[in-house]
Amino acid sequence: MLCQATRQKSFPIENSEWDAFPWKDIPSELIQNHMGKKPDHFPKAEVKIVYDNMAVCVMFQVRDRYVRATAASHQAEVYKDSCVEFFFTPGPDVSKGYFNLEMTTPSHLAYYDSSDGRQDPRAVN
Q: Whole domain around residue 74: which residue ranges?
């Protein structure tokens, strides 16, 4: 799924509420993709993406009544929890690799880097 990112001159990130400034004016996109066979349980999830000269900011909103959150730290196995993933490349040539951020509640993150073109991305600590 390709999402449109909104470019800003600058983007203050002190507020992380979906419908409050500065996020309220960023358009959201419904996530409809999945890896492999579509799972039986597929909660409603949306994403907002914004960037400026210093950062890329991504906010997800997921509506799910079955939430698993056991990861206790960053770089833990968040993929075993209820999580969302953000894959991105710093340029248009995806053969040069990609970055992958996996996020779960409460804000635990796993970051993987394959920017050198590796098939198996390495965890970044």
A: 67-125
